[in-house]
Amino acid sequence: MSLKIGVPSKGRLMEKTFDWFGARGVTMARTGSEREYAGAVEGIDGVELVLLSAGEIPRELAAGRIHLGVTGSDLVRDKLADWNKQVAELAPLGFGHADLIIAVPACWIDVDTLDDLDAAASAFRAKHGFRLRIATKYHRLVRDFLTANGVADYQLVDSQGATEGTVKNLTAEAIADITSTGETLRANHLKILTDAVIHRSQATLFLSHRADWGAERAVLEALVAKLGLSAPALSG
Amino acid sequence: MTISPAARAEAEALFAAFRATGAAPVEADVLQPAGTLLDLYGEDIRARAYVTQDPLRGEMVLRPDFTVPVVQAHMSDGAEPARYCYMGEVFRKQDHLGPRASEYLQVGFEVFDRDAPKADAEVFALFARLLAPLAPKALTGDIGILLAAIEGLTTTPRRKAALRRHVWRPRRFRALLDRFAGRAPVSEARARLLGHLKTDSAEALMQAAGPLTGLRGADEIADRARALIEDAEAPPIAAPEAALLYDLLGLAAPADSALAHLRGIQPLMPAIAPAVDRFEARLTALRAHGIDTASLPFEASHGRTTLEYYDGFVFTFHAGDAGAETPPLASGGRYDALTAILGQGRSIPAVGGIIRPALVAERKGA
After folding, report:
1. Pairing mode, if any, of strands A27-31 and A132-136?
2. In chain A, what residues touch B162 (CB-CB under 8 Å)?
3. Is A82 at the interface with chain B, CB within 8 A?
């Protein structure tokens, strides 16, 4: 038996994750050909590397098919209902920073806050006969946030990419998306609402409550000690 | 979660009791067109209902409740007054781990009758009688009194409309009322915009802000800018008037005492008089059914956090020792505004409620 740790399978997120573990004496590397999704871990025994799409890591953690996983804190909160009962945050990794925000056209001089957005949505619905559309792929996070803040008369429309373009293409009136520098937003003539930072995301090491923590408990203790983290409480 | 034989037997018994009153049984499709429900309830229902795609009929939902199909059936071929009852599964997504079922039985009873206080009392008394063996805790409210109080405020129609719209969202309602009453400061962004609008036109500010993008037009933006100027010039809701409304929101007392309290503040809020008259007529009708209104719990804000739905009398019955997390054994209320929307202006006063037979069976077995 080994402790399975899920890590993003490509790109900057993978490299930064390898760097983070490497700096703490746990060496991760891809093995085999460049196209093969296989990896190895050195510096600690009993840890198996599983290379996965970052977007699938929340689901794999929830299902307990991996014990630990590195992914964005935004993805875990959006994809998992009651996320903090299914997984635990072991450590924020200090990279992959992005904020989930709500943005509207910069020409909407009358809208800067959620209060304004709500009032504009009410008038928009009365005039156009349908609810003001907010394009996003973060349905749960955005809906929970807007419900908690009492915003009405909106609807979410799904957008899996190029979300900033939906307003210009007339498929949405506003967007909710992640941004790190805001450059794409500005380039598309959008501005961020001042009180609508839904979540500040970063790459985070998560632990699965659902995974089978038998013999892996000892490996986990050795690993967290090596990483300089405090040992988490395991349920069950 | 599988529906237990005990829950089904309880549902059959309750359904028979509803039918025994002369109510006509109604069937409704499990698959309902999504459009009507989404338009009525918005994203709240999308979070709670199972939405699916039909190749010919478009977006459909698994029936989240019976109210809309029953109202539609009544409008297409019902005569007034009418009483309907129904029994069947409803489907609700649960977004939290826990014991709440996502598929369960509802048994319901709806009355379409223009004598509102009498119909309110009839529904409540029937539910109270059927649930009496469980000695449940009843709680009542009346959204109509809140709506009347808002209507009576000395302020702009726009502010009243904003408050009315958010009666069902207590947090935003509170924020709006605080702002309209001058208790909360104007946001920095708003103050800056109002400053700019003193020297520049909305059109000039838009031009400076960036190209016109999206479906919301320059006229709509300029309209709202004008509304903001108008709002900034409107005086705050007077402190005593706001205090009365805050007081009303927090009113919780046995029904007879609540009535006495409302009659006491009525000279200061004359607009609530017709709603308080209806409340009094309902209490009289409830007493005629043997309900003890001297001890019946009443809270003015009860029913404000459910779906945007009830706009008059509301009630729930909870099991005596149930925690706040447990759904009620039964709930219901008056929903005249919903029938007005579905009837495209035709008013069809309606009151009704549902019982959850699985919870009733569980309590009986306990």
Report:
1. unpaired
2. 119, 122
3. yes
Could you tell me the two tokens for A69? 């996983």
- Measured between alpha carbons, how far is A31 from A94 in angstroms, rounded to an integer? 26
Contacts of residue B218, Cβ cutoff 8 Å, sequence gap at least 6: A107, B203, B206, B212
Residue with tokens 């490299």: A15
Per-residue pLDDT of chain A (236 residues; tens, 9 = 90+): 799 999 999 889 999 999 999 999 999 988 877 777 778 899 999 999 999 998 999 999 999 999 999 999 999 999 999 999 999 999 999 999 999 999 999 999 999 999 999 999 999 999 999 999 999 999 999 999 999 999 999 999 999 999 999 999 999 999 999 998 889 999 999 999 999 999 999 999 999 999 999 989 999 999 999 999 987 777 54
What's the Cα-to-Cα distance from A103 to each of A114, A184, B49, rounded to whole Å? Answer: 10, 11, 27
Closest CA to A157 of A180, A174, A179, A178: A174
CATH number for the segment(s) A3-96+202-227: 3.40.190.10
Which residue is it, tokens 């937003």?
A185
| Distance, C-alpha B322 to centroid of its chain | 23
Q: How far apart are CA A70 and CA A205, in angstroms?
A: 5
Task: Give dist(CA B260, CA B328) in Å, integer.
Answer: 28
Cis, bond preceding A8 (omega within 30 deg of 0): no
Q: Flag if A147 and B43 touch (Cβ within 8 Å).
A: yes
Q: Which residue has the tokens 């001058």?
A: B182
Closest residue to A107, CB basis, from B170, B193, B212? B212
The position carrying tokens 């929903």 is B335
Kindly list the domain boundaries of chain B, sorted by start residue.
184-235
**Which among B169, B188, B221 has CB closest to A107?**
B221
Question: Which numeric CATH code is attached to A98-201?
Answer: 3.40.190.10
Give SS3 for A168.
Answer: coil
Indicate the domain borders of chain A.
Answer: 3-96+202-227, 98-201
ipTM of the complex: 0.88
pTM of the model: 0.90
> Are B262 and B98 contacting, i.e. CB atoms less than 8 angstroms apart?
no
Residues 6+ apart with CB under 8 A from A39: A7, A28, A29, A30, A31, A49, A50, A51
Residue among B33, B44, B43, B49 at smallest CA distance from B102 = B49
CA–CA separation, A87 and A59 (whole Å) = 10
Nearest-CA neighbor of A147 among A188, A108, A177, A114?
A114
User: Which residues between 85 and 144 in chain A have a beta carbon less than 8 angstroms from any beta carbon of chain B?
Assistant: 85-86, 105-113, 115-116, 118-120, 122-124, 127-128, 131-132, 140, 143
Residue of A81, A149, A150 lying closest to B96 (CB–CB): A81
Sorted by sequence, the CB contacts under 8 Å of residue B199 that are 6+ apart come out as: none
